[in-house]
Amino acid sequence: MKIKVLGPGCPFCKKLHEMTLNVLAELDIAAEVEHISDWKQILSYIPATPGLVINEKVKHYGKPLPSWEKVKRLIQEEAGMQH
């Protein structure tokens, strides 16, 4: 699984990155997580930050941040897990 957290490095982006790593640890799922802060790359996916892209599918963008449960559900769906 490949996950991209999109954002310039603001507190919201950092929080989403941290939440994503913690959800992966809780679910014991191995994934490649990349934080993309380059605006050109960000805008190729989404119009507003922060963003969460899983396996090249945009799952969330903009504020407010998704909840822990939403991030968990999105990761589980992409991993083919029941939730």
Give a verbal description of the structure.
The protein is of the alpha+beta class and 83 residues long. It has one domain (2-79): Glutaredoxin (3-Layer(aba) Sandwich). Helix content is 43%, strand content 23%. It is built from 3 helices and 4 strands, in the order E-H-E-H-E-E-H. The chain has helices at residues 11-27, 39-45, 68-79, and strands at residues 2-6, 32-36, 51-54, 57-61. Strands 2-1-3-4 form a 4-stranded mixed beta sheet, sandwiched between helices.
Which class of secondary structure composition applies to the elements?
Answer: alpha+beta
Task: Assess the beta-strand content as a share of residues.
Answer: 15-25%
User: What is the H/E string?
Assistant: EHEHEEH
User: DSSP helix count?
Assistant: 3
The name of the CATH superfamily reads: Glutaredoxin
Given as residue ranges, the uncertain stretches (5+ residues, pLDDT < 50) are: none
Instruction: Just give the CATH class.
Output: Alpha Beta
- CATH topology: the name is Glutaredoxin
Tell me, what's the shape? globular
| Domains, number | 1
Biggest beta sheet summary: 4 strands, mixed
Main-sheet strand order equals 2-1-3-4
Strand tally is 4
Cα distance spanning the termini: 17 Å
- The percent of residues in helical segments reads 40-55%
Radius of gyration, whole Å? 12 Å
What is the level-2 CATH architecture name?
Answer: 3-Layer(aba) Sandwich
Look at the structure and give the mean pLDDT.
96
